[in-house]
Design brief:
The protein has 196 residues and is α/β, with parallel strands linked by helices. Helix content is 19%, strand content 19%.
């Protein structure tokens, strides 16, 4: 069924909701205001909706959230300035402009994060530097047109990585050899169709 912004208000009386999937739903900022009061929520997907930065800020109170997936073209670089407060997160997927340097700085404050996906982001090597101390990470996916091989040095301390995906980053044979040396036990991949 289709639920618009005000239609989420009835959820506030449901104290045991743990998972909500808003995939291509007509959800709005008003809807997220209601969802932001569901403190039992552990998993939330917001994909292809009308939600903006103003709506996402209502999620700051979801302190028990474990998994969060945000994909929407209406967000900006400063959409997730609160994300570092969601200390229980262990999986985080952020697409598009919301995956910015400012967001990566906040992500670095998450002590339990194990799985991080940042496809189609707008971050650069300086943003990746914030991830250098996140030794809890097991799987990391980075994709940004601004990313260069200089990020390798920032990632070198992440010895617990099982999987590393570097999206569209153009790697030379020497780059690949260096990656294998830095991460001998890590499965390294890229987006299909790249040269090399």
């Amino acid at each position: 069924s289709k639920i618009t912004g005000t239609g989420f208000a009835h959820l506030q009386g449901m104290k045991q909701i743990e998972s909500i999937n808003l995939h291509s739903a007509p959800a709005s900022d008003a809807g997220l205001e209601a969802i932001g009061k569901l403190t039992t929520l552990r998993r939330l997907e917001i994909v292809h909706t009308n939600v903006t930065d103003a709506g996402l800020k209502h999620l700051a109170g979801l302190v028990n959230l474990r998994q969060l997936h945000i994909h929407g073209p209406t967000t900006t670089e400063t959409a997730l300035t609160f994300i570092g407060e969601l200390k229980e997160l262990y999986q985080l997927d952020i697409y598009d402009r919301a995956a910015s340097n400012q967001t990566l700085e906040q992500i670095a404050k998450l002590p339990k994060l194990r799985f991080l996906m940042l496809p189609n982001g707008v971050f650069d090597d300086e943003g990746v530097k914030h991830l250098a101390k996140m030794t809890t990470l097991e799987e990391l996916s980075l994709d940004s047109a601004k990313l260069t091989t200089a990020s390798f040095d920032h990632l070198a301390n992440l010895k617990g990585l099982r999987k590393l995906h570097l999206g569209r980053l153009n790697l030379t044979p020497a780059d690949r050899a260096r990656l294998q040396m830095l991460f001998p036990k890590t499965e390294i991949s890229q987006s299909p169709g790249l040269p090399g």
